[in-house]
Amino acid sequence: MHDPRQCVAGAPIFAGLPDPIIAQITAISTHQQPVRKGELLYAAGTTADRLLVVDSGRVKVFRTAADGTEQIMYFLAGHAVDSEAALFMDVEHQNSAVATEDARVCSIRRDDFRTLVANTPQLAVNLLSAFGSRLTMLENRSAGLGTLTAHARLFRYLEDTGARLRTDYFRLPMSKRDLAGWLSITPETLSRNLKRLVREGRIEMQGQMVRLL
Hints:
There is one protein chain. The chain is of the alpha+beta class. 40% of the residues lie in helices and 29% in strands. The chain contains 7 helices and 13 strands. The protein has a 4-stranded antiparallel sheet. It has a 4-stranded antiparallel sheet with strand order 2-9-5-6, with no helix packed on it. A 3-stranded antiparallel sheet has the order 11-13-12. Helix 3 (110-119) crosses helix 4, helix 5 crosses helix 7 and helix 6 crosses helix 7 (187-199). The longest helix has 25 residues, at 121-145. The model has no long low-confidence stretch (mean pLDDT 86).
């Protein structure tokens, strides 16, 4: 059974907020809106005006190249959160999203959220505190990466990417050459360690698409 409070509390940006604040955010959220297979949730170039949570079903997030080729970015399923930045910034969607099966989606509108923040100073304080804790955690995690082997560093990156996207199946967000540079390893080392992770049964990979096992 769907629990609206748990749905809101499960969004990473609300992690660590006290129950009374979660209750206030839950009160302005919309839950389990039906989306039919093939229906667009949003299109590239349109205004991103709400945070989305895919409560059930599966949603494909993709980008269409100039030649019409579709590039799958990642999939959303099982309480995956999307468009968090829409709550805080006036931005446009860079990708499009379509339901690949019947789905139910929850959402929080930016205007409603901003009104709540304006009328509830304690919410702003708690959000800043939660963000500060997350930044500290990320800084500590980043510092720890420097002590890992290239193999461990690559797998940690893939795990973090999956956690950030809230999915175990996603497209690498950058080219393999750029990823090698990001991880401070050579492209050859990256290729060798990706193949090793496949052999170890820790990932599946086809082109730029990665599945964490």
